[in-house]
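Anyone up for a design puzzle?
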């Protein structure tokens, strides 16, 4: 398993050269608000990741004692339980915490602008489904490598009023760095040996996990570069969603038309309905 951990570190070093870091997070010429403008778009992923920890990564076998890796995963899922609360606090600091009806908030969170974070959760859940514990462990270690890289570069980013975010800042970095799953004692003493086939399977999971996060990070960069005042994107996606209603109703109505009428609608130049035999 240690060879898989080393493989993850190789991926992490490559990931750190992503344009998300070089063009945004490490650019100290930009104000803090701009460097963290992607923050609101990760809400679906962070909340979804909380559920992944509870319902996918954590395995409660009742009275049965979990194996070494599953015990580490279970402990890790509890350590991650509260991090999302810091993110919600930061939305106000970033000027992204608008008051709106629940229906409008739903339109925003399920808009195309936020699809990268929703999809990432689904992709990770699919990757973990039915996977052996060592593969899931490799995936979670990869996610942690991504996380520590992001929050290393978020440390010390000050907003215009001098405040630092909690989730997108040093506080979260310190929490990530202190996870028991990352301790040297765990990596030296608790990791089981894998045979060649198991090791290759774990590496494939690592490859896929980093590929997903590479794509996600590209979406975060685009979101941040295109985003100005958060209120305006919210207003736009809410209106776009509302504009879909008449079109959706027309499509639904067409689906329930008698087949003869559908044939007539598709036939140009006809002025009457031809029955369908």
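Challenge accepted. My sequence:
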């Amino acid at each position: 398993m240690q060879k898989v951990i080393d493989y993850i570190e190789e991926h992490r070093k490559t990931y750190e050269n992503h344009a998300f870091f070089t063009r945004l997070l490490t650019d100290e010429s930009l104000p803090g608000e701009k460097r963290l403008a992607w923050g609101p778009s990760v809400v679906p992923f962070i909340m979804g990741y909380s559920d992944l920890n509870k319902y996918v990564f954590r395995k409660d076998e009742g009275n049965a004692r979990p194996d070494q890796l599953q015990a580490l995963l279970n402990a890790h899922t509890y350590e991650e339980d509260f991090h999302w609360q810091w993110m919600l606090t930061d939305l106000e600091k970033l000027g992204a915490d608008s008051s709106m009806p629940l229906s409008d908030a739903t339109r925003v969170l399920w808009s195309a602008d936020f699809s990268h974070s929703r999809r990432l959760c689904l992709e990770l859940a699919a990757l973990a489904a039915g996977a052996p514990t060592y593969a899931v462990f490799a995936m979670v270690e990869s996610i942690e490598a991504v996380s520590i890289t992001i929050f290393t570069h978020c440390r010390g980013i000050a907003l215009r009023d001098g405040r630092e975010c909690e989730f997108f800042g040093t506080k979260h970095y310190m929490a990530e760095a202190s996870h028991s799953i990352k301790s040297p004692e765990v990596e030296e003493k608790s990791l089981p040996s894998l045979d060649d086939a198991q090791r290759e399977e774990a590496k494939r999971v690592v490859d896929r996990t980093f590929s997903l996060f590479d794509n996600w990070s590209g979406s975060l960069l685009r979101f941040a570069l295109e985003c100005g005042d958060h209120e305006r994107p919210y207003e736009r996606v809410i209106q776009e969603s509302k504009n879909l209603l008449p079109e959706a109703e027309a499509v639904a109505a067409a689906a329930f038309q008698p087949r003869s009428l559908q044939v007539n609608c598709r036939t140009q130049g006809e002025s009457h309905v031809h029955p369908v035999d």
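A detail worth pointing out: Residues 271-277 have pLDDT under 50 and may be disordered.
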